Structure formats: C-alpha cells, structure tokens
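Project standup — Tuesday

K.O.: blocked on the structure for the chain from last sprint. Re-posting the sequence here as requested.
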Amino acid sequence: MREMSPLSTGSDRRGGFTLFEVMVALAIFSIIAIACLRSYSMNLTVAARARETQTLVMLAHARAAELLTDPDAAEEGDGAWDPPYDAYRWSVRFSDAVRDETEEATFRVGRLTVTGPSGSFDLFVPIVKEEQREGS
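H.V.: unblocked you, prediction finished:
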C-alpha cells in the first residue's frame, strides 16, 4: 500500500466533486434561477397591464365610433358593456356647445372615460352637428 504525504496534490483521490464544490455550484444556480423567476414574473405583470390598456383603448374607440355615427343622438351618460367586457364602464360628459355661424354648425367636445378593473382611459370626441339651412 502506498502512503499519502500531507502535501499530496490529490491526484490519488477518486473522481468526483467535494461537498464544498457542490454547494458553491448550487448557490450559483439558485441565484441565477431566482433572477430568472423575478424577470418572468415582472414580464407577466407588464403583459397584463398592456392587455388591460389595449382593452380600454379598444372599448373607448368603439364607443367613440357610436357617438360619431349619430351625432344627434349623442348624449351624456354612463353605461357598461355586455360580457365579456362587463367589468368595464364608460362615461360621457360634453362641454358647452359652441355655434359657428359661418359654418352653420354646432360643436361640442365629449370626454369619454372608460374605466376597467385596474385603470381608466380618457378620449376626447369632437361632435359636429350641422344645421339645416333655411330654404335649401
């Protein structure tokens, strides 16, 4: 049998990792895994906010199109959408009407507010109501 000297280089030991090497590798892996999980979680939050904002804008544009389609029927009020958007509410408030004598039209600006579960979106909608000229 061969004796090992206290200054042995370790070339005689069996292959494998020491407990210390395994613990260091596990610590490094854990730090990287935690950083990746935090990044993934933050990305999910940002994606949810973007989806919510996109829905608010889409619903605001749809309601604005309804107001612009029939300016005579455009009135102040509040309301909600049917499912699957039943968690969203809308509100319309108009400024005072301004009459333009040269164009023979009345102008109003509507403030359309769409409110959702985690935010709101405002859209200003110009309403032009043309008046019929007498004798034409």
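K.O.: great, moving the ticket to review. The longest helix spans residues 19-69. The mean pLDDT is 88.
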